[in-house]
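Dig into my protein:

:::
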Amino acid sequence: MLRVRAPAKINLFLHVGPRRADGYHALESLVCFSEAGDVLAFEQADGLTLSLEGPFAEGLAAEADNLVLRAARALRECAGGKRGAAITLTKNLPVASGIGGGSADAAAALRGLAKLWDVKIADAAIQDIALSLGSDVPVCVKSVPAMMAGRGEYVAPVGELPRSAILLVNPGVAVSTAEVFRRLGRTVQDVLVTVPPLPPVAHGLPGLLRYLAETRNDMEEAARAIAPAIGDVLDGLRENGAALARMCGSGATCYGLFASEAKAAHAAQALSAAHPAWWVKATRIAPPDIVAPQ
């Protein structure tokens, strides 16, 4: 059995620009990945099947056409020939939560099945398949820190980020990305054309925080109008010692960066006690090899 991790995607910042001619907004984002995430397992089989397990499996049970199966069929069609696999998705991440769970799962399916089926396919072809599945899927294929632009088609790895302690918190509210875009209510004109270079990893968390202080998440205001609990999460993170608290993607999950794993763990304990219905996960920014098949 082949196992592949699908780490949570975290938009450390997310700038939203004007709507393009193709209907998509221009985006600009620094993306990293966490050590926490879903897990996919693959075995050879005659057909393509998907089994769901894990704490958030129920949230996907009603989906008639899961993104993992769409990724599998797209790769099989590109590679040619009949291939099959029995896929098991352990869903550890909340559904529709702004941390790229479905996109990360689809990307993990592409990686895992390419290895299982011994598919020889160019990176550009994999990226084309990924983009056809969703704007966040291309950056999730390699799951390394990267600058993402366009609607997600431009992905430029930025090297290693400090493996800082990070706390992910979701208030148990699903937020529709499409609804957030509809509620933006303005055409954003001030997307940065050139993002300053990231500080060297040796500068650690302080350097990363100084860099992020000049950035934002343009979707936060609209998302908070849909789910006011996002504001409660951000307040809770700041009150419990986060050096930076910000919404992930289109929400409702938020992240907090902490000076140490001990401080993140203490905040996780406090928030879980105060809000038992919230999903709270203390983790770290992942190393570059987090998605190596096992």
